[in-house]
Model the fold of this input.
Amino acid sequence: MSGVTMTISEQILLEKCREIELLCKELYDYFTELYSDDEDAVRLWSKTAAEEENHAAQFTMALRLINDLPCIILVDAARVESVILQFRGLIEKVKSAPPKFVDALGSSIKLEKYLAEFHLGCVAMFEDDSYRKMFNAMMSSDNEHVESLQAAYDKLMGAQDKSFTG
Done:
């Protein structure tokens, strides 16, 4: 595949993948504002939003290096567009009816699990080993998002359970 450059449709798909990361960041930035009275929540949402922004920057870098970065796009354009529409709908929904913190955590855990499957299963395969490693690391960091969100959820639920028992 050496010397092959991305097609316009591959470029567009990478741009759409970047958009998904930025929509994720927008959601987590909103949660940072929504739960601004809770230091732990602000730290969690801010950290996760910054990581999503970093993911978007990696897609931006891939797009800048497009002529030197041959890859195979493994995702269907309709699926990417569907994910974008779902994100936009979710953002509208939470802004019109802000969720409780525990519900935001639960939804975010489900979202990150979905994105981890989406990323690992179907986004892109890069020929260059260093880019492949970089993107694989980005994709696997979704699992870290799940873990940190799950830990916050478990901590919150544990605190709520204790308040009912004593």
User: Anything to note?
Assistant: The helical segments are 8-34, 39-64, 77-96, 101-122, 129-165. Strands lie at 71-73, 124-126. The longest helix spans residues 129-165. The chain has one domain: 8-158.
